[in-house]
Amino acid sequence: MPERLTILVVDDDQDFLGDFEVIGRDFFELHTADSGEKALEMLKEEEPDAVVLDLRLGSGIDGLETLKRIRETWPDLPVIMVTEHADVDTAVKAMKQGAFHYMSKHPNIKTLHAIIQKELGSVRWKNLCLEEIRKQYGEMIGRSAPMKEIYRLIARVATVPLNVLVLGESGTGKELVAREIHARSGRAGHPFVAINCAAIPPALFESEVFGHERGAFTHAVSRKTGKIEMADKGTLFLDEINSLDPDLQAKLLRVLDDKAITRVGGNEVKRVDVRVICASNQDLEKSVAEGSFREDLFHRVNGIQIVVPPLRERAEDIPELTRYFSRRIQMKTGRAGPVFSGEAIEALQTYHWPGNVRELMNVVERASVMAAGREVTVQDLKLASRSGKSQGFFQELLFLPYKEARQKLFSRFKSVYLSELIQRNQGNISKAARQAGISRPGLYRMMENTDE
Questions:
Q1: Span 185-243, pLDDT tens digits
Q2: CA distances for 172 relative to 115, 183, 211, 214, 281, angstroms
Q3: Are 75 and 98 contacting, i.e. CB atoms less than 8 angstroms apart?
Q4: Whole-number Å distance between alpha carbons of 420 and 241
Q5: What is the distance, to the nearest Å, from the Cα of residue 66 to the centroid of all Cα atoms in its chain?
Q6: Going by C-beta distance under 8 Å and a sequence separation of 6 or more, which residues neighbour residue 333?
Q7: Exposed, middle or buried, 112 (CB in 10 Å: 0-12/13-18/19+)?
Q8: Short-list 78, 57, 75, 76, CA closest to 66
Q9: 235 phi and psi angles, rounded to 5 deg
């Protein structure tokens, strides 16, 4: 007996549905829908192995529009178009919109079964290839040309014993690139230690990074191993290196040159073997020209340069990223989430994403949780109010009394500022408070009084 496949047949012709069920019972477990709208609702509940879709449906949206909407949400689901009146132009149009095959309305059941099995095999092979990429590159997702170039560079530099400088806007995934370089290098079995240079107050930087001896300063009640020493034989990742003040730049350069550290308050020189990967969201060459970044340190860290593209330059990766973040929040919450409508995906692809992938993740996770129905709509995304360049929010303020407009603007700023602050410090409230220059209780009060 052949493997029984689950298919959804979409047709308003009850005679055809009855005949199909009789002749196909040995090959298929059959589900039926008499309209495109009903078919889309059924797909949200359970995804079959394939869809057999009539081109000319009697009412509501037609077969081609139904196909278009299926493709927007379920891009890999095999769809076979069937019709009583086939013509070349319509067949070409259907194939361009993503139909796997186009057949007469009285198909040979064995042939149809073989076609679906073949297409399922192709989809499974594609998914296996994607899974292999995920195993190699972790949470780095995307098949666009810019991402393929990033994968190529990671593979090339991973085994080369040179320092790496990763450049890119905030939220593009620079630390992910650094982690993948480490994971594919000969140091993979040793620590990967990340330091957010902007999150450590200058007064504490030496103690955190180089370590200190007992009694080195008030409250130094025991010896502390610094981050660089922790990374011995592994990889040291210095994020936002552009934020270091000149004195700390000089001390870091000395460590990189000598490959040795001396703990604060100590005399012992300890050799360290680390590969250094630095990241910056600013143009370091420009910072060198302006005098805010040491030229000798720049040349030390700029062994090989990798530039991570902003999300707006790889919009074709957004549907895949959206599906990934949506599945991840479903796993976290333990419940099935809504699907993103085609219009919502299109809105995500046309938005300019000043916060890049990190902002997309927040939007997708929030919409997945807060959407009222089974589908995430454009309204659920709330993109207009998130855009610094969008006119909607600011136009609304222009028509309010001055004091009310000022209060709303400050409330929005506080929400965005706190969100970015907490994310940058990976949820560590103490570090976030130090970086913001406020007390820990003060930061908690601000978070409690934030509307969004």
A1: 999 989 999 999 888 888 788 888 888 888 777 777 787 888 898 999 999 999 999 98
A2: 41, 19, 31, 40, 9
A3: yes
A4: 18
A5: 28
A6: 369
A7: buried
A8: 57
A9: -120, 135
User: How do beta strands 224-225 and 211-212 pair?
Assistant: antiparallel
Token output for 243: 């934020």
| Cα–Cα distance for residue pair 416/146, rounded to 1 Å | 28
| Domains, the chain | 5-132 (3.40.50.2300), 145-307 (3.40.50.300), 311-448 (1.10.8.60)
d(CA 191, CA 232) in angstroms, rounded, equals 7
Calculate helix-pair angle for 356-370, 318-333, nearest 10 degrees: 50
97 HSE (CA, 13 A, CB side): 21
Q: Which of 100-104, 114-118, 190-194, 211-215 has the lowest mean pLDDT?
A: 100-104
Backbone angles phi, psi at 211, to 5 degrees: 90, 170
- State pLDDT tens for residues 366-395: 888 888 778 888 888 888 544 444 444 555
Tokens, residue 116: 């679906």
Buried b (16+ CB within 10 A) or exposed e, 69-96: bbbbbbeebbbbbbbeeeeeebbebbee
